Amino acid sequence: MQNAPPSGRAARGHRVSTSLAEINIIPLVDVMLVLLIIFMVAAPMLQRGVEVNLPVSTRSAEIASERVFVSVPLSFRDDRQVFIGEDAVRLELLAERVRQLMVSRTDRQVYLRGDGGVELQELLDVMDRLKEAGVEEVAILSRLPGER
Question: Do 73 and 120 fall into the same domain?
């Protein structure tokens, strides 16, 4: 009986331990790399703002810190909607929304981004609503020649 192969528990325990020691992680790495590439391609597509064609100015100053931007697109004439950041707001509700934003701020400044095709009277209507909300300073943004 000395030459008989081990049977029972001793033989099974040896085989099980070698198969568990050889876990293959290559498929997991492949899946993770594919997901990484998908997120790298999709992330720039998610960051999209409102298209506004700013007028040109030769003496524009750069903005140093985080500010409140109100954009007036060319479609303002039809739908009377402006954008606070990326949120669409009807002109009638603009004063209340800006008032809510200004509650926790020490500086009461708003940067107005009006499309080059928007008339001055329409920008003044928006500025009146901003002043009604308690904004102390309204800056009208422009771009340098050659800037996008």
Answer: yes
